[in-house]
Amino acid sequence: MDKNNVKISVVIPVYNVEKYLSRCLDSIILQTYENLEIICVNDGSTDGSPKILEDYAERDKRIRIITQENQGLSGARNSGMHVMTGDYFTFVDSDDWLQLGAYQKFMDVLQTEERVIDIFLFNGFRYMQDNLLTTPTITKIFNIQDWGDFTESHFKTIRQHKDPLYNTMAVWNKIYRTDWFRQYNFQFMDKMIGEDRLFSAQTYLSTDNVYVLEDYLYCYRKLPGSLSYTSDENIFKFLKIADEVKKVYIQKDFYKQSIFSYWEYLLREGLSFLKNCQIYLREDYLHEVRQRLKPVVAELDQERYKKDKNFQLSEDLLRLDADTLCKKYRSLHI
Q1: Fewer CB in a 10 Å sphere around the end CB: N or C, the chain?
Q2: pLDDT at residue 102 above 90?
Q3: Is residue 143 within 8 Å of 133, Cβ to Cβ?
Q4: Among 3.90.550.10, 3.40.50.720, 2.40.30.170, 3.30.70.260, what is the CATH number of 8-222?
């Protein structure tokens, strides 16, 4: 690979985002680093998104459009990965945008580092869109210092991170080396909730060549109601992802090290989905959460467990009925 002529494939799943798509595309085509392959996967959009894509593709020949029936975010990303030809690749969600010069900062690092970079991780801003607010709020997303001291090297591993199931589990703040990635044939699990966590667990634990940059290069737009947790089908998908993440951690000999993070993951997501699911499903869903939570609690360091800030929530999830839990923790965000 010629480090002076690296092609970056940018995979953009597109589904009914006509209001935000132009800003996303503008932020990519105006990047100062220009050797890009921009793969837009129209995932069965029914609004004006396809026309916007066609207009941009006429203006910029780097844009390639794939049109398919709706397969969800995972299916769209998988379709883009299947056809990408870049030396490195990355994902951008179609309602988000990049800071100017984002890919040039990656290239500056790539061209000066002697070590191979399999995963390049950078920081991002969360742009909170609330219909009730005149001015959206912008907050920093990741605490990069959780990766430790950067004075000697920016190369880090997930095993060094304090909270391996949260701050680092998005995929839109990563750039991946294609040849390394294709050795493993990773794919997103179709039509799941939280599929980024499984994908990131698989990729992170397959390399030590992760370069971490503190710079804020990505703007993540959080929309109210952007993801529905209320359908009968969706609420149990989190549990499937949780099971698969645990399997990967055990397989990669990382489970014991990450058990407290995994426990908190079950608590946070378990309670969140419980509060948002249909009332008639709550007890069945809570039963499934408990089936997973009980063995994890039994494996925890009990002295540390009982002193943890989430101890009471954990105990309540194991003993209270669903309605009582939802009332008690109505306003809790953990």
Answers
A1: C
A2: yes
A3: no
A4: 3.90.550.10
